[in-house]
Structure formats: C-alpha cells, structure tokens
Amino acid sequence: MNPSMAPPLSTLSPSTMAVSHFPLSKPFYPKPTSSTSSPSFQCHSSISEQLRPLSLSLLKDTPAHDESANSKPTWLNPTKSKPNIISLVRHRKTKPTSNGNPQSLLLNPTLLQTLVSIPDSDKDLFFSTLTEAFPSPPSDDDVLFLLNSLYRHPKKSILLLEWLKQSSFLLETIFYNLVLKSLRNARQWDQVDRIAREMLHQGPQPDNITFSTVISAAHKCRRFEKAMEWFDMMYSAGVLPDEVTFSAILKVYAILGKKEEALILYERGRAAGWKPDHVAFSVLGKLFGDAGDQDGMLYMRDEMKRLNIVPNVVVYNTLINGFGRAGRPNISKELFEEMCKLGVNPDERTLTAILKIYGKYKRTRDAMDIWARMKENRWPMDQILYNTILTMCADLGMESEAEKIFEEMKQSYKWLPDKWTYSVMIKLYCRRSKSDCAWKLLFEEMPQRGLRPDVTCYTSLIDCLGKEARVDDVVAAFESAMETVPSQIDDKLCCCLLSTMARCKDEMQMNAILACIEKASPMLHSLICMLWNESVGFDEIKESFRELLSKAPINVRRPYCNCLIDLCTFQPGFPSHRPRELFNLGNIYGLYQGFQTQRQSEWSVDLRGLSLGAARAALDDWLESVAETVEEGEGLPPQFRIFTGYGLDRFKSVLPRYLEGYLSETGAPFHKSEEMAGSFVAEKADLLQWLHSQGILSVVVSEIL
DNA sequence: CTAGGGTTAG
User: Fold this and answer.
1) Which nucleotide in the DNA or RNA is closest to residue A210, CA to C1'?
2) Of the residues A374, A392, A410, which one is the last residue of a structural domain?
3) Nucleotide B1: nearest residue by CA–C1'?
4) Smallest CA–C1' distance to B8, residue
5) Is the CB of A281 under 7 A from strand B?
6) Which tens digit of pLDDT belongs to each residue from A330-383?
7) Domain that residue A671 falls in
8) In which order are the strands placed within the sheet that holds A679-683?
9) Residue A12 host element (H or E)
10) What is the largest CA-CA distance in chain A?
11) Could you report the per-residue pLDDT of A521-548, keeping only the tens digit for each?
12) In chain A, which end has fewer C-beta atoms inside a 10 angstrom radius, N or C?
C-alpha cells in the first residue's frame, strides 16, 4: 500500500496502522529491540495520542494544545517513555468484593436442576424460581456457582444476568465475563457483542478478561473483523491490553495470515518492554509455519534466545511442524534433538510432527531411530500418533512394519484402529497393488467394526483395481461408494474411473465405466461424448474442458487431462487428433509446464511423471517443434534426449517400457543412453532424416546439413 | 467449568 494513501491519523488504530506502514509483499523482520534503541514516545492512553508527536512533525496545522507535549524533550527520560501499547502486568484476577457476604447461602440442591429444566423461553418461571430461592440477594459465591453451572446453557446465563440486574445484586465485571464465556462456548456472537457493548455503555467497566473473551469469541465464531474491531475499541475505552489479550489478537492475525500486522504489533509491544511468553511465540511460530516462512521462524528463535526463553514443548511443536512444512526437515530434526537435549520432553504431538516429516522426506533411518527411542523412553502415544506412524510406514514402503503395528492396534484395548487407520492401510495396500487385501479391509473388516469408510478409501481401491484392469470390480466398488458416500464422490474418484476407462478391453467394459461416470459427474460424461463426436470442434471442447477444470481442485486438474488424453489415445472411436488437442489445452491451462529444455549441446524433453498418452503427445509435440525450428532456419544442437525415467518396481517401469516400444515402433533413431540411465538419445542428422521420412519435416535434410 | 491466550493426520 502506498504510504500517501494512509488514512488520516485520527482514524489510525493498531490494525489499520500496520497495513499502512508496510507493503504486504515485503517480508519484514525488525531488528532486535533493546531498551536503548526503542523509540521514545510519550506516555499516553490511546494509540492516536501516542501518534500525536509523530503527527506534529508530519502535519502543519497542529492543534495548539498539543504543543506543550511536543515541546517536552523526549530524551529526558528515555527509559520511562515507552509507547503505551501493552500493559506489562497481567490483569489480576480478584474475587468480587461488592456483595461480600462471607457465608454463602446454602443452595437448595435441586435449584440448579430446576433452573436447567425450565424451558429457555419461560422467563417468568425462571425469574420466579430464583426469587423464591433467594428471598434476600444471593451471595457472590452463589452467583459464581450458578454462572459456572450454567456455562453450557447460554440462554439461561443471560436470564440469570437479567434477573440479577433487576434484583439489588451489584453486578461486577466478573459476572458479565462468565456470561460472555458461556455465550462464546455456544458461539453466539451477536449476544457476545451485545452484552459487551452494554458493558461499554452502561458498565460495569470491561477489563482485559472481557476483551480477551470477546476477541476469542469473535475468533471462534470466525468473525475476525469483529475481533480486530474490539481490539481497537480497547484503546478508545482506555483499557490497555495485557499479554493475554495481545496473544488473542495475534492469533486472529495468524489465522488471517496477516504476517506484517502481527509483526508490527509484536515489535511495538517489544519496544514497549513486553517480554513475550511461550503462548505468543507459539502463535507467531504457527503463523510463520503456515506461511512456509523460514526467516520468520528463525527470527522467532533468535528472539527467544535474546530474551533467554527456552521454548516449551508447544513452541517446539509449532516450529518443528513449521520447518517441516517449509521443506526444511534438517532444521526440524535439529530442533527435535535440541529439545531432547534440553530436557524438554517430546509429547504425542512432537512425535507426530517429526515422524510425519521423516515419512514425507523418506528419512527411513531417522524414522527408525525415533521409533526405537519411543519404545526405549516410553514416550507417550495416542491415536493420532499411532495413525501417523502407519502413514509414515506407508510413505516409506514399510509394509510389514505397518502390518505389525496394525495388528498391535487390533489387539489393543486403548487404541483400536479407527477409520483413519483403515484408510491408511487401504492406501498402503493399494499403492502396492494388493487390491485383494484392501478389498477385504474395506468390505469386511470395516463393516465388522462398525466403521464407515469415507470416499478416499473407495478412491484408492478403485484406482488400484483400475490399474489391474479389473473392470467389474471397479464397477462394484463404485456402486458401493454411490450407496454409502454419494455426497462425497469427487473429481479424484472420477479421475480414477476415467483412467480405468482408458484401460478397458472392449466396448462392454467401456459402457459399464461410462455409466459410472455418468452417475458420478454428468459434466465429465458429456465431455467424453463430445470428444467422441467427430463434428465437435476445438473451441467447444475447450469450453467444456475449461468448465470441468475450473470446478476441480488444482491437484486433480493435471490428472484429469492425463486421463482424458489416455482415453483418446488408447481407445478406438476417438478422432485421432484428440490427444494433441487435449495436450494443447493442458498447455493453455498451465498444466504441463517446463519439460522442454534447450542447451547448446543438447535439447531434451522430460516425460517423467506424465501418463502414457500424455507422454506420447508431449513427445510428438516436441518433435514437431524441432521440425519447426529447422523450417524457420534456426540452429540445432548436435544431440537430442528424451527422459523417461527408470523404475525398479513394476509401477515406475511402465512409462520407460511403453516409450521404448513406441520409439522402436515408429523407427525413431533414439537409443538407450549409456551414460545417463532412464533416457534415450539421438544424433541430429539421424533425427532430421527420420523427421523428414515421417513427413513431419518438409525441408530436404541434405540441404540443412 | 470455577473469569481470559497456544500445537497434531489423506
């Protein structure tokens, strides 16, 4: 944002200030704050007052009454003149004093039951019951007890408050705060807002507990703008936030991804002498972690070192997670070892985090090390950790270990396998082409245990069965999915159906899958019909394809395109130009970027990760572009290379084998590269001659060479 | 619950 567009100073508040001072695109990490370098503001009660000295130096028409403040030399006592943005002492909880009846009236034990049983709408009965129970005003303790007991009954909390108001009971802030808590629990934002405003206007005076409750209520009700509004209101109400309220608003910034705003507030608090605690650091750590911002997290670490704060387990957890997310497993590992060394015991979440990272980054050795230490140190375990270990085993291809743990869970009385567990095991089996094992878990064990599979279980199984070309079983699995999770059927599952369709052996199979697709996605079904129809042109296909893609999640778009190309490549009945049309569309929509490389010594195309049909289309496309270059009279390198990858397992070797066959079938002069496994090379002259023989290149080759 | 803020899974 342009500084010249900043709002007038009178409207500045902590949240708007942050936006106006720093461009959002620039990461901003303040220098370490020390008491000597902190800006010397005067002590004022509100943000706009704090900013007044600044406004005096920036604006010409200054109100006269401010001049005395400005003329005071600010360096007179720099240690005392800190900006008043945060209260350095936490709000103290005190017992109410006004209704100081030392002996609590003996509560009729059935009173509470009676109150709870009264319908919310029957205000009169609620009031008369209370009046009967308390002929003289209740004591503070009675009211505290009642309010705490009505925590889960928001409507009655309000009724009690109203009754207290009309009796002679002196309502202090604490009683309102308890009502707010009850309303927050029920996520009744409008009521929270109403009661808090009532406090502002009629009293009792809201305090830090009021504001932090209101801010966290706004957070819980996802009314983030209201959270910021109330934070700003604190200052105008003359209540200085303390560290708890500060963390609450920082959390709101974190959820909104407002990095700069959070940092500015943080830095201003630091300048005011605030020593952030573990909660503040975990909030900021999470903020930077979610943003994949390593520098932000490193800055937090430095700050803690500077302040001599040893992170606690929660802070370590957020950082370990964050660095894992930011693609820095080594830093996560360092942090994990550091906390162990410092005697900060890892908990379930720590272990979940680190094992997830080791699984994701294929760090088998590190994972096994943790696994051993878990047993040795009797580190704590929970359901999520159990399932994460299974996921990790799946990621690392440790099938038998996973099976062992799975059995262990079945024997356990504490951590029985749940639907997550089954979903991981099904995925693991499907990845290893063991569809029968997955089938048994999905259709036998899960129902036996009363577990409802979700759509991902079906998707894994359908994908696996499809790769094995077991069309009838795919149809059966799909029909079961339609019965049990019809509303969850998504693009990913459609993609698996599509890829099965590309493998069908005859028309009957094709029609069976097509019928499934029609039920799952009419839009996809109609696109397939258009692709079939010779008379449908490129623009129509493009529009229909665009519609399909724009509705699909990003990670399914490329698979969609791949599968459609495969379908048109390998099944009869589609016009022969369809695969290239779809490939071009994939390029137009940015699905296939960056697999062509041009160096002086060599041009190459990287087909790894493409489906068979898409790889063939990409190869044809590349060869044509080579021919075009020649026709445009531009220079070529001496050598050309195709990367196909090489796979030791059955799955990864499919593409290399297919392309090898395709190349020899067409007589293309590419041969297996000896110096670089997983690639094929051709000499320039051979390639050009072949291109000419295929009619791809019209220029006579001898003339170029 | 005993007035307020923080972290884990396809």
Assistant:
1) B4
2) A392
3) A148
4) A349
5) yes
6) 999 999 999 999 999 999 999 999 999 999 999 999 999 999 999 999 999 999
7) 596-704
8) A596-598, A602-606, A639-643, A679-683, A671-672
9) none
10) 113
11) 999 999 999 999 999 999 999 999 999 9
12) C
